[in-house]
Amino acid sequence: MAxxxxxxxxxxxLSDACDFLEHYHLEYTEDVVTRFMGKGGRPDIYIVSDxxxxxxxxxxVRLIFPNK
Length: 68
Known about the structure:
By secondary structure, the protein is mainly alpha-helical. The protein has one domain (2-61). Helices cover 56% and strands 12% of the residues. The chain is built from 2 helices and 2 strands, in the order αββα. The protein has helices at 2-28, 51-61; strands spanning 33-36, 45-48. The protein has a two-stranded antiparallel sheet with strand order 1-2. The protein starts with a helix and ends in a 7-residue tail after the last helix.
C-alpha cells in the first residue's frame, strides 16, 4: 500500500510540474516552442503548442513514440 501511495504521489508531482510548464509557456511566452534546459547534462524539456511544430517533432520521434 505504501508503494502505491508513493507512486501516486510521484505521479501527482509530475502532473503538477507539467501543468506548471504548460501554464508558463502559454501565459508568459509568445513562442511556439519553449525550451526548459536541464542543468549539468540533465534532459531538456520542450513544450510545443503549435500544431505544425508538433508534426515536425513527431516526425523526428515517431520511431520512439509510434502512437500519437
